[in-house]
Amino acid sequence: MSMTxxxxxxxxFANLDLGxxxxxxxxxxxxxxxxxxxxxMAIARRMLDQVGRVLISRVSPEVRAALQEAFADTVEWxxxxxxxxxxxxxxxxxxxxxxxxxxxxxxxTGDLPVAEEAIALCIEMGCAIxxxxxxxxxxxxxxxxxxxxxxxxxxxxxxxxxxxxxALPSVVAGLVxxxxxxLPTSVGxxxxxxxxxxxxxxxxxxxxxxxxxxxxxxxxxGAIAGRIANRAADARRLR
Length: 239
Description:
9 helices, PurE_dom, 2 domains, 4-stranded mixed β-sheet, P2CMN_synthase_LarB, 40% helix, Rossmann fold, Ribosomal Protein S8, Chain: A, domain 1, alpha/beta, 1-(5-phosphoribosyl)-5-amino-4-imidazole-carboxylate (AIR) carboxylase
């Protein structure tokens, strides 16, 4: 496909916001879910040509295979969550180092795919990451050492991903002096399953300092955390 025809094909279904990162500090993220492999590849190719990097979320095995076939020899890959979230970049094109510091905790291993969407976006926004997994309230003693390490860093904000009863973000918010973002996940079953129980629990928190995003909205949590952390980093540089 020629360059002109490739652009005409892309314009049938996508109007990319290539200046979003410069304008808002949050790069455009390609949600592969609901798109064909051909559409995802066309968007990725355009973003690589224009900005040198592209973050793609909710990648199916079929779309990942198509991307690998199209770009394996020409771009550098970062793979999160066993391929569900990907970053592609031209050689030598790295995210800006903004200096923000983000902590990420997951209550269980099943929360990782959504949490890693947030991690990937924070990295693309130039933040450093401190992370710990499987530290939920069923064994709360597992939380204290990694949380202490995050506070010693010190991180500027903490994302806490949890499904089931969604209790961990409230626990963390009651222990720390930095903003906490509750990320409810659809891990769970029975009454309140699909993340509903976790969401309502977080919204009903009695711990001040906890903000909550929608169920499985890792990108939303990462965008908020990255903005908070980078604004804090900017303030440190002005001291």
